[in-house]
From TrEMBL:
This is Serine--tRNA ligase. It comes from Flagellimonas flava. ATP binds at residues 264-266, 351-354. It holds the Pfam family Seryl_tRNA_N. The lineage of its organism: Bacteria, Pseudomonadati, Bacteroidota, Flavobacteriia, Flavobacteriales. PANTHER family: SERINE--TRNA LIGASE, SERYL-TRNA SYNTHETASE. GO terms for biological process: seryl-tRNA aminoacylation.
Amino acid sequence: MLQLQHIRENKNGIIDALKKRSLDAEPMLSAILELDEKRRGLQTELDATLAESNKLSKEIGMLFKSGNAAEANALKEQTAGLKEASKKLGEELTSTTSALEEQLYQVPNVPHESVPAGASDEDNEEIFREGDIPKLAEGALPHWELAKKYDIIDFELGVKVTGAGFPVYKGKGARLQRALVAYFLDKNTEAGYTEVQPPHMVNEASGYGTGQLPDKEGQMYHVQADDLYLIPTAEVPITNLHRGDMLSPEDLPIKYTGYTPCFRREAGSYGAHVRGLNRLHQFDKVELVRIERPEASYTALDEMTEHVKVILRELKLPYRILRLCGGDLGFTSALTYDFEVFSTAQDRWLEISSVSNFETFQANRLKLRFKDENGKRQLAHTLNGSSLALPRVLAGILENYQTKDGIEIPEVLIPYCGFDRID
RNA sequence: GGAGGAAUGGCAGAGUGGUCGAAUGCGGCAGUCUUGAAAACUGUUGAGGGUCACACCUCCGGGGGUUCGAAUCCCUCUUCCUCCGCCA
């Protein structure tokens, strides 16, 4: 959520920046400012009424104390009108405030100046590429065929037990996945991230805090009996660990890493591009979350990007980095870099990581602040990144490391796996 | 799941209808003293809105109610504690 004060002061700048998202924000922002003005007027009016009423109450109290009941009762009658007025003003204020918030929730984050304008993923800007694309032998298979051939992932079994999009990992497939989780967590903790194991379900307030609610309600599984949501990413519970906090300068930066399953309803889109591990309802992910001072957040974003690069380099997977254009940028993000691994057998790029700076957009909803050296309260910046989304890394490894009669294991994973090939 | 109890400022802990945003202690900050530190003493110290700055308004777990007036009374929800039951 954007800060009202920021909108008041930079309306035109925000409108210009949001054009990169192909969004004409003018009507929205005008409506917001109008509601804001109305809200503040009502607040002032209500305050004055309450002040008057408080004053009378105090006088009544003192009159009673001094035994002057008759005069006190006379004053009581004066309060009736004030009470009526403040009730009415209060109701108006409440409805105006919620109308204002509703509008405010509709406005996406302002893109960073480096974000290119664009309508769709075709306008994303490739900024880095590394690793050789392997030349596979004739008859190279996509990962869902490999999974079957070596009996390491069973999609049909998952359908039987739960439904489509809930695969069962078996034998060396399960072990490889566990190895990846352990390897990522080790790399992240070595880089100074504190490992956390958060809850896999969150309450409504947490959903609002990181921006999944109210807009993307349908993306999350909702456990109605208890009004809880299955997390779509560890970002939600981990960032919410600090919801409402007032941090000290020495607390920052805060760096977390966590492994969780992620649950996404992902209604829509079926077909070749979502085959196998490409898109699932449940998948594993190791996440990075950082809370930073505003002036440090872009350096932090670069650090996270470098960190993910190192991991992909060690896995020897060919990858590229995209700077997302305005049209493809997530609602809450100011700047996002997507990492994509090239899947040779599918002949396409697979998104395996997304690293974003939300600036104060989440912090504003979360009321996540710190008190700086001058005692001034400021919103912190929040960032997160995947490191990494497991199924697609797995897909990339299976496809790029396949040989005629087996799948090699990347060298760095062998100690974690306890075997060096799947056959 | 059943029966009781509790929730107050960074922490501990008073406050059961009227200048209570809240005693007191600890902690924090500033100062005095000291070569320095500690101790002692003095002052100061919650948050949000609002204002150029004041004024003023709101907040005693959340929501609602009674009252001229609520931390205090009523309803409700949540969380925590104790006992019983069940349980990986």
